[in-house]
UniProtKB/TrEMBL annotation:
This is SIS domain-containing protein. Its EC number is 3.5.-.-. It comes from the Bacteria. PROSITE patterns: SIS. It comes from Branchiibius cervicis. Residues 31-171, 196-336 form the SIS domain.
Length: 348
């Protein structure tokens, strides 16, 4: 297969993670100081950035004891709602730092009394400039339209944020330091990637599911499959899939399941794989443990990381699948049809 810009940027992720950790870990005290006196964290984002924010939300609530949620930007930009956010830290996440809707929503949050932190990959972007504290990720310029290294760098920022607001900020530092090498291993081995591409290439429809800390990874996988490979794909949480949509799963469909190797969601994901298999779907599993690998039709190796940090690297095998699948379908993964690098939404 030909070399792509997307592939080159996927390969740059070990260094992007290393550089982002080096840049952001020293800012933990400032993150904590910005949050001081607040009771909740609210995230503002769109697209891939929103999927990174979902990881941040779960990490804060499950490991830092901090109430977190997602803000709908239209509440600010279209409805102009007047809310009391004096107890909130609002974290705006944007690859470019210049998506106008996100910039406006951050200013709205400030006007409503919130403290603000911005996460972006472009120095001197308006989002970073206007925030109380800017977290500049270190992915470097990203030329392919699909977000890869910028997304992974955003998840690193979420991990730094989560640990900064925990009772023991350095508790995960040793494991964080292993992530670049884990990503490098996944890139070199590509275990299960060709088989996953073959399974998805012949499928007319696919669903992607995960739960808990891996929910954002599942939604990002679905987004990348849909926008880059131009296939109808739905991303569901495990619970949402169980509450009805699973009834339409039949033979000829594919299901991509994303799981961590440990944690309270590992067993339910195994049970979901078995259920989908019984309904005739072709199941592709990313990550998980040995029992999960045995339960799916195609097992794709994931990172050797605990559930708390697994989302930083679990997306990498999915990225490899998406790039290879797009090429096998005769598509250009660098410039998917109808997409632009900076998100544009409806004007006010």
């Amino acid at each position: 297969m030909r070399e792509t810009q997307m592939g080159r940027e996927i390969a740059q992720q070990p260094q992007a993670v290393r550089d982002t950790l080096d840049a952001l870990i020293p800012l933990r005290d400032r993150i904590a100081a910005t949050y001081a006196g607040r009771r909740q964290v609210l995230f503002v984002a769109r697209g891939s950035s929103d999927n990174a924010a979902i990881y941040g939300r779960y990490l804060l609530e499950t490991h830092s004891g901090v109430l977190a949620g997602l803000v709908s930007p239209s509440v600010a930009t279209h409805y102009g709602a007047k809310l009391d956010l004096s107890d909130a830290l609002v974290v705006s996440v944007s690859q470019s730092g210049q998506t106008e809707e996100i910039v406006q929503t951050q200013q709205w949050a400030k006007d409503c009394g919130a403290a603000t932190i911005a996460v972006a990959n472009v120095p001197d972007s308006p989002l970073l400039a206007a925030a109380d504290l800017g977290l500049l990720t270190q992915a470097g310029p990203e030329l392919a339209v699909p977000a890869t290294k910028t997304y992974v760098s955003q998840t690193v920022a979420m991990a730094v944020l989560g640990t900064a607001l925990s009772g023991d900020p350095s508790a995960y530092d040793d494991e964080l330091a292993t992530i670049p090498d884990e990503i490098q291993r996944l890139l070199a081995e590509r275990a299960g990637v060709p088989e996953a591409v073959a399974a998805l290439r012949d499928s007319a429809y696919a669903v992607v599911s995960g739960r808990g800390l891996l929910m954002g990874t599942a939604l990002e996988t679905a987004l990348k499959l849909e926008e880059t490979c131009l296939r109808p794909v739905r991303g569901y949480s495990y619970a949402d899939l169980r509450h009805g949509p699973i009834s339409v799963v039949t033979g000829g469909m594919s299901a991509v399941l994303v799981s961590a190797a440990d944690g309270p969601m590992s067993t339910p994901m195994i049970e979901l794989a078995q259920d989908l298999d019984a309904r005739g779907a072709t199941t592709v599993g990313i990550g998980g443990n040995a029992q999960f690998a045995d339960a799916v039709d195609v097992a794709v190796a994931g990172p050797r990381l605990t559930e708390a940090l697994s989302p930083i690297a679990s997306i990498v095998p999915a990225q490899l699948i998406v790039e290879s699948l797009a090429l096998s379908l005769g598509l250009d993964p660098d410039n998917p049809r109808g997409l632009a690098k900076v998100t544009a939404t409806d004007p006010d």
